[in-house]
Amino acid sequence: MPQPKRAKITAVGHFLPESRLTNHDLEKMVDTNDEWIQSRTGIKERRILKDEDKATAYMAIRAAKEALERRGMDAKEIDLIIVGTVTPDYLFPATACFVQKAIGAANAYAFDLSAACSGFLFSLSTGANFIESGRAEKVMVIGADKMSSILDFTDRTTCILFGDAAGAVLLEASTDETGLIDYVHHTDGDTNKTLYQPAGGSLNPATAETVAAKQHSVRQDGRTVFKKSTVMMADVVTEIMERNNLKAEDINWLVPHQANKRIIDVTADRVGLSTEKVMINIQDYGNTTSGTIPLCLYDWKDQLNFGDNLILASFGGGYTWGAIYLKWGIK
Asked: Domain of 43?
């Protein structure tokens, strides 16, 4: 029986807003301080898209265009665009539709995927499935979020955590042994709503009352989410390594979702990986939700070698969590 095609990343792109919001800036806004934020989260600053006329689509478009430029590819070659996001420009149409039009991907269809901080990982495996099945040859996968648009900057439990950014990758059929080899995804419905946005959906549509109560901003039970994510991130990395008979020495890089440095450290320690093998940039960007993992791939692109073994891992609201094992395919 012929083996299915394998999808591999052939280019990366990114976008970061120019404006920086430092911990010292936040000290003037809420009751917190730089030492507390760094010790609890590892974050020093985050990027904020301040332009009122720009949102998630703008960042996703910029990241997608860079990925295309780095690959030297015409957008008309793209078959499919998937945007992982929880901050779409509108509930509908999909943000991916704006990306498709703006980059000139006339032959592509496009849709958004919502899985909170696991959005990019779920989007990446979805895009890979299209290539493996032969239904698509070239897929653009983007993780982008303007988290500042759903933050209450008087709530110190959430406003210190998040930033705005976008990252994009091109997926193409592999002609070698590199590419996405395996993935494991999980969901456990968070009926207690420990991480959610109370209003704006069909259950609680926008009213003067929901706006006044700031119910269109992120709410989080930080202690519960921290405990859950610390266990699940480490468990899913262990799971995918065991499924593929991988030991710590076989892994070149762990690419974890950048939610909290302590969670990243626990995950790396559980699977026996030294800090030198872990991509960490949370100090510069904070938690950009769907953007964190592609941003890591972009920041480390010059240190990655053809054939390197990477484990990508995430945990997000929902609850959603997962891991991907891939071999780096860019020479």
From this structure: 7-176
